Amino acid sequence: MSRYPDQARVFLAVDCIVFGFDGKQLKILLVQRALEPEMGSWSLMGGFVFANENVEQAAARVLHTRTGLSNVYLEELSTFSEPGRDPVERTVSVAFFALIDINKYKKQITDDFHAEWFDINKHPKLIFDHKQMVAKAKARLRYKSAFHPILFELLPAKFTLPQLKSLYEEVYNIEMDNRNFSRKILSMNLLEKLNEKDKENSKRGAWYYKMNSKKYKANFHAVATIIPNPDIYYS
Amino acid sequence: MSRYPDQARVFLAVDCIVFGFDGKQLKILLVQRALEPEMGSWSLMGGFVFANENVEQAAARVLHTRTGLSNVYLEELSTFSEPGRDPVERTVSVAFFALIDINKYKKQITDDFHAEWFDINKHPKLIFDHKQMVAKAKARLRYKSAFHPILFELLPAKFTLPQLKSLYEEVYNIEMDNRNFSRKILSMNLLEKLNEKDKENSKRGAWYYKMNSKKYKANFHAVATIIPNPDIYYS
DNA sequence: CCAAAAGTGTTACCGCTACACCCATGG
DNA sequence: CCATGGGTGTAGCGGTAACACTTTTGG
Q1: Which residue among A169, B152, B204, B218 is least packed, with the fewest CB closer than 10 Å?
Q2: A93 strand C contact, CB < 7 Å
Q3: How far is A163 from chain B (nearest CA, A)?
Q4: Which of B2, B3, B220 to mutate to test binding with chain A, by most A CBs within 10 Å of its CB?
Q5: Shortest-distance nucleotide from B193 CA to C1'
Q6: Are the Cβ atoms of B78 and A76 closer than 8 angstroms?
Q7: What beta strand segments (E) does A135-230 contain?
């Protein structure tokens, strides 16, 4: 018997907006839903929260189970709780957004559902309110990455500045000056230059860098105006 | 019978961190809990989410019921979902923070519990994880108001720039230059000067201003660095 | 040697900070 | 007429944007 006899219980789920970057486009990872209602429709990665875990642990578990990845960038977005959002039972979902290196993602053998990357601007119809979740996640990504150096989470451990610049250009749909961009990023003192160049994309080659994760963690809340007028992107 | 037979349901609640400003100190509004467990202990304003409302509506309702206020600034903070946070039943709470004009608050006659303002840095022991909620709300308030002109929500409809400056000084525990502060705030073009001065706090008197709510809404996402180095306050 | 991308150096400008100074008025 | 808080003017500094120019190397 409940100790709160007058109150109703709800189902609690998490959904993850998983971002990836293929070098040209910003992508999201979608799956085909494995249970009714709407079985087979495209959906965000999600799942119910277990009795012994909090929502963040649930999101990390779902992500790990379905992508094989752990220690990914994961941030709570917001709660979606419209009474009718799930047509068959009242289910409240806490949405998280995740940033992963698209190359590290390997489809799990044990998966009994499809997962696929889609261009964020051109994805199939999604179940429930997942379209809203994606829109909100995109807005948050733009807002946050205008101030905080989080986008490198979408790149491999070693990456070049031109790669990072392309990523910013894709996220904000702008063109940036490569010369000023390099200086601005390097002036944050978070990157370490490696003794290796990427020669695939240019003749001269671009130096590889890696994030100094100690400094990154220490300065995680550092605010830098990487993008001018960030507000105009937060629609 | 549930359509998700293998899943457990949880209780869903909201809790509100209600900020106020008395001219000198930043305050939060606490109540004495009206139900078991921990009946009588100090707590944030909260309540269960009804079947016909989403969490934001629930937070607004709780606030309205217990303070008489509507149309207050209300923003989702995050979800608190540790399995054992409520010792008797699994209850997940979505925390919201609210900014209100402390003068508008009137204790409701119908209240069967105490509500009281406390200095944010010196409040009684709180139930469950409410202390964490308060800490997180304070951090978010600092972070957000460093970029967005939201703090005026804590002041009366007409206010002076010295009042607003005191508020910023209290929130960030810094001293600001009144001359530069005025210019910075006014350069956002969100305030309208009234034909009236506050003569209570100085001989010369300070002009009253009011927020132009049309411009405020239109520019809500405008980012201005009201506070230098905002990151150092986001602990 | 040319094209194309990476990266450096330099300049002009803008916005912010610091602070000298003026304003208004109650006592 | 002076003390006090409100407010304006302005000079200097630092960071950013713009862009001419150099470097590198495959074809």
Answers
A1: B204
A2: no
A3: 27
A4: B3
A5: D7
A6: yes
A7: 158-160, 191-198, 206-211
Confidence of residue B36 (pLDDT cuts 50, 70, 90): confident
Q: Where are the domains of chain B?
A: 11-141, 148-233
pLDDT tens per residue, range A136-169: 999 999 988 888 889 999 999 999 999 999 999 9
Alpha-carbon distance B90 to B22, whole Å? Answer: 37
Using one digit for the tens of pLDDT, what is the confidence trace for B148-177? 889 999 999 999 999 999 999 999 999 999
Nearest CA in chain A to B86: A3
Class of the A151-229 domain? mainly alpha
Q: Tens digit of pLDDT for each residue in B97-127?
A: 999 999 988 776 456 668 899 999 999 999 9
- Under 8 Å CB-to-CB from A224, ≥6 apart: which residues? A147, A148, A149, A184, A188
Give contacts of A90 with chain B, Cβ < 8 Å.
Answer: 51
> Are A89 and B52 in contact (CB < 8 Å)?
no
Spatial separation of the C-alpha atoms in residues B191 and B209, rounded to whole Å: 6
| CATH number of this structure's domain A11-141, picked from the four choices 3.40.190.10, 3.90.79.10, 1.20.81.30, 2.40.50.140 | 3.90.79.10
Mean pLDDT over all residues of chain A? 90
CATH number assigned to the domain with residue range B148-233, chosen from the 4 options 3.40.50.720, 2.40.50.140, 3.90.1150.10, 1.10.10.10: 1.10.10.10
Could you tell me if A171 and A200 are in contact, meaning their C-beta atoms sit under 8 angstroms apart? no
The tokens describing B101, both together, are: 């004009």
pLDDT reported for residue A235: 42
